[in-house]
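Before the break, one more example. Copy the sequence into your notebook; we will annotate it together after we see the structure.
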Amino acid sequence: MGQALYIRMHAQDNVAIVVNDGGLPAGTVFDDGLTLVQKVPQGHKVALVDLAKGAAVRRYNVTIGYASQDLPRGSWVNEQVLQMPEAPELEGLPMATVRPDPLPPLEGYTFEGYRNADGSVGTRNILAITTTVQCVAGVVDVAVQRIKAELLPRYPQVDDVVGLEHTYGCGVAIDAPDAVIPIRTLRNISRNPNFGDEIMVVSLGCEKLQPERLLPAEAPLRPMPHPGAAPAAGTAPVLDVVCLQAEEHTGFMSMIDSIVRQADVHLQRLNRRRRETVPASELVVGVQCGGSDAFSGVTANPAVGFASDLLVRAGASVMFSEVTEVRDGIDQLTARASSPAVAQAMVDQMAWYDAYLARGRADRSANTTPGNKKGGLSNIVEKAMGSIVKSGSAPISGVLAPGEKLQQKGLIYAATPASDFICGTLQLAAGMNLHIFTTGRGTPYGLAACPVIKVATRSDLARRWHDLMDVNAGRIAEGSETIESLGWELFHLMLEIASGKKTWAEHWKLSNALVLFNPAPVT
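Here is what the structure looks like once it is written out:
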């Protein structure tokens, strides 16, 4: 079994988590004399002192719950013996009160990226085919497979072809106030830096979300000079649409032929693009965690937070998200805001989401999963404290509402649901060109539109999922790496991946579907 180990996050904590793989049996004695009253699984909490019924249970120097019964020293502390605290109020919060000394800028760091006409930079060179409605998804899927098989080998500078398929576009209240969220999400994803300014759309024809409504900047809609032709130089932007209900389509294969023919035009242009040396400030990194466990806030997320600070010092943009997974630490976030206006924008996003959950007769407690609890996270308060540390320590310089596009540098709070797939979709819409994803329980999550660096919180997961995890943050818990050393490792890896090195998710071509956040009614 080796030496019995636990990790205590703060001197004021009265619980700690068991480090040893497989947990520890009852009767185990730690070096300080603490003796386990019962078996405690890996990552789960053990009481460091006697806890009377009703006593505050503290981890991260935060009250994560109250003991629902007397818990002797050495007891296993889990969700069954904890009462969750009330959510913090959104009034009377510290607003932009933390003023850390500015850290020196990091200069001279670069990567090899694709410069776009709008000034953004892609880390990949991908043809994306936007869809206006779910009805065309099957046709686009067949067309994409044919494009990959027949056309892509001719264009070695193009990384991939992806269909931006979703379940929106019709059968919805398209004019409802909240419909702006899924519409702008899909619009901004279509303009992601990794797609090289090439916008190609497949439409059914009768859907509510018409192409010119989805992409008004590329309108007016006008036909191409002839099928598959490129617009003449100097002409106004063309909304390049293949409409399946168009009269020229006389069967399934004619639809596929039209999509393939049009894709060839875009592939020719993309294939002329080359990587060039650009500063690290052109990175737009989204950070997220999924399948979290009690080690997330000990190893992987703190290392990501350190790397986030390095990115901000290099002039890059970093987004952290997941409303329900930061809601219980809102006071920490508003205090770090760069201005009272930014702090208030965060409060507004929390209030909007509180109301959204209330409409569905749910609350923040619905967030934690059976896997989170099996991994030692008793409730959303504890989970939130470990989630927030992904944001590092830099001032929060801006806030994005769901689906909005990023317009500034620095550390940004991008409000999203905590669902892995919805969060990733919304971060893509914001302009993310590189994704960092931490996990403790393990998930094969991936995005076709953007490289995803997967960080395991525990060495056991990294060993078992050796060809899915890119980084093993469990080395921090074992003592062979520090948060700082692993943070630097992540920073350098991000530059390598941004320059074209493949992640494991890319190697296996793991790609989760886009999931648009649609709080508007379905009709």
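The longest strand covers residues 62-67. DSSP finds 14 helices and 21 strands in the chain. Try to locate both features in your own notes.
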